[in-house]
Design brief:
With 306 residues, this protein is an alpha/beta fold. The chain contains 13 helices and eight strands. The two termini are 35 Å apart.
């Protein structure tokens, strides 16, 4: 596959209370991303509640997304699972449906060692037949990929990229340079944590794996393109304009805020899976007030924030 780069937009996965995917709503979300011409679609990430869905529902989600994208935009499908054999099966499902890559986390109940994670990822890459993006998300998995482990995994055939957690602005350039020195040429290095993206992309990251991009792709694409073109002033201007949203993400979690935004923008109406609860009425009013003030700050482009 071509190297992952640019904006990888991660939509929510709308479901009912029983965990059945609302494929019509998901197709609407994916359709917005296709129309915006994002660089890839990140389906079934943490924002896409992958760990809360059965294998069958995850397959239905990938099928719906692939039908809507019709091959126009590469789809990266979350394939993380507690068991290695389950992750292999999910990788095979995603490959059979047409996904371009699989996003694999080190999900576990019992804490994992580096050797266990290496074997897990190597097996999924070998037996699943799908290019693998390492999903380093210690905030949910409680496993941190060490530089040595990343270097080992980057040499495994079929492991092609990494989605890093956010790092502080002062550490971004150093972290990227150190990781570049460990991985083969062409290995894609990406970032998450939306509020860190401007400095990370300006420092040379290949890909922004974006929560907000899954709902508001236009402004996120403009930020990424500015960074790719070395226009630091514009990238930082857009980042500053979005800071009220980043503050909500930090305060309430990006997942809960995105669910509220999808409702407020009348894009889809769904709730996060239990035991996760929607935002309180007070918090929703805070999100609504923030949204109401954003259009004056970010107005240009195909999807103004209204």
């Amino acid at each position: 596959m071509a190297p992952l780069q640019g904006l990888s937009a991660f939509p929510i996965t709308p479901t009912d209370a029983a965990g059945c995917v609302d494929t019509a709503a998901l197709r609407r979300l994916v359709g917005r991303l296709v129309a915006a011409r994002v660089d890839s679609i990140g389906l079934l990430g943490s924002t896409g509640i992958y760990m809360y869905l059965t294998r069958g529902e995850r397959r239905r989600a990938v099928e719906a997304a692939m039908d809507e994208s019709s091959g126009r935009i590469p789809v990266i499908a979350g394939i993380g699972a507690l068991r290695t054999d389950e992750a292999v099966a999910l990788a095979r499902d995603a490959k059979d449906i047409g996904a371009a890559a699989g996003l694999l986390s080190a999900a576990s109940y019992t804490p994992l060692t580096d050797d266990e994670v290496f074997e897990h990822f190597s097996t999924v890459a070998r037996e699943g037949g799908l290019p693998i993006v390492i999903y380093d998300n210690p905030g949910t998995t409680h496993f941190q990929f060490t530089p040595d482990l990343v270097a080992r995994l980057a040499k495994v055939p079929g492991i092609v990229a990494i989605k890093n957690p956010g790092v502080g602005a002062e550490d971004t350039a150093r972290h990227l340079a150190a990781q570049r020195a460990l991985v083969p040429q062409g290995f894609s290095i990406g970032c998450s944590a939306d509020w860190t993206v401007a400095e990370t992309m300006l420092a040379g990251a290949d890909t922004w794996y974006s929560v907000l991009g899954g709902l508001l792709p236009g402004v996120c694409l403009r930020l990424v393109r500015a960074a790719q073109q070395g226009d630091a002033a514009e990238a930082r201007r857009l980042d500053s304009a979005l800071e009220p949203l980043w503050e909500l993400f930090r305060q309430y979690s990006s997942l809960r805020v995105i669910y509220a935004l999808a409702d407020l923008l009348d894009i889809c109406r769904t709730a996060p899976p239990r035991p996760l609860l929607p935002l309180s009425d007070t918090a929703k009013r805070q999100v609504a007030d923030t949204l109401a003030h954003l259009p004056a700050l970010v107005t240009e482009g195909p999807d103004t924030l209204t």
